[in-house]
Amino acid sequence: MDLYEKRVVLITGCSGGGIGHALARAFAAKNCLVVATARSLASMSDFQDDPRFFLQELDVSSGESVRHALSTTLEKLGRIDIVVNNAGVQCIGPLAEVPLPAIEHTFNTNLYGALRLIQAVVPHMASRKKGKIVNIGSVTVLAPVPWAGAYTASKAALHALTDTLSELWKPFTDGIVERGEIVLV
């Protein structure tokens, strides 16, 4: 099958053992070309020799890293059809005692990291008038737990951001931003 017949899916947070890694495998099994990203290529070493995967180092907390990964992907593959914002970090502890830098790191990854990628990829998708962005939230937003206040707050903010962007772009696109169920296309 030719590259232009396959959907190009960029997924953040594809380190081994996590949701992103499993999603990368599932999209590849559906005959998609997967741009698997993580802060370290070594964490995705089992994808290395598989032609269904294009591996990229990507730290979503860095605007420069986001721009580099997108430009490299677009240069090599020509387009991005689907983005899955999956990268995330936990922040464990009683909210009143967690050091503020740890909470800032959680928001910088879980919320601002997704927004960095959204802002970087939307011009490409808008110019093509097609594309999907899926933001991975958390059930803890519906049932908060005492030791995950910063994580839950960052995911609740991501849900609100996703809903807002979805409404904003609805008149111009075919649902470019979604949250909720992952449907492998």
From TrEMBL:
Gene3D superfamilies: NAD(P)-binding Rossmann-like Domain. GO terms for molecular function: oxidoreductase activity. InterPro entries: NAD(P)-bd_dom_sf, Sc_DH/Rdtase_CS, SDR_fam. The lineage of its organism: Eukaryota, Viridiplantae, Streptophyta, Embryophyta, Tracheophyta. Keywords: Oxidoreductase. It comes from Fraxinus pennsylvanica. Belongs to the short-chain dehydrogenases/reductases (SDR) family. This is Uncharacterized protein. Pfam families: adh_short. GO terms for cellular component: endoplasmic reticulum. PROSITE patterns: ADH_SHORT.
